[in-house]
Amino acid sequence: MPDRPAVESLPVILTHMKRNWPFYWVSRVNARYVHVLERRLKPLGLDMPRWRVLISLYEEEYLGVSQIAEISTMRLNTTTKVVQRMVADGHVSTRISPEDGRVTQVRLTPAGDALRAAALEEANRVLAAGFVNISAQELSQLNATLEKVFDQLQRI
């Protein structure tokens, strides 16, 4: 049987919805992050969908389009269109997977990797500015908590 929240905590959440509703804060933080990062990426010629593809490929030589969609939280058809635009821009290349001919794999080109590096510098600046008063331990705990919530939501 799945764990349940403490029943006594629910009235507090419902009484002070904005302050106590964690998804309110998750949504607001994400919206603010996207807004700030978009402003930083625009001079590089990047939008958020292209950034998500670039950063999805950061630690992998090749990823399938569906894997990029999963990592980047974009819909598969959107990811496919973004990848096609990035191929035309010379930032990624594609190939058919040697293991599964049904899978299109994507990899960064040297130009795409240089763009990813420049964009990652901006993302790191946003990270540093956003977490200036947060200790490494607090950040680690935040990540662990968010991962637990994500895993729980996948079970629903």
Commentary on this structure:
This protein has 156 residues and is mostly helical. It has one domain: Orthogonal Bundle (Arc Repressor Mutant, subunit A), CATH 1.10.10.10. It is built from 8 helices and 3 strands, in the order ααααβααββαα. The chain has a 3-stranded antiparallel beta sheet with strand order 1-3-2. It is globular and about 55 Å long.
CATH topology: Arc Repressor Mutant, subunit A
The number of strands is: 3
Could you tell me the mean pLDDT?
A: 92
pLDDT below 50 for ≥5 consecutive residues: which ranges?
A: none
Summarize the main sheet.
3 strands, antiparallel
What is the tally of helical segments? 8
Distance between the termini: 12 Å
Spatial arrangement of strands, main beta sheet: 1-3-2
Fraction of residues in H or I helices = 55-70%
**Shape summary:** globular
CATH class group: Mainly Alpha
Radius of gyration: 19 Å
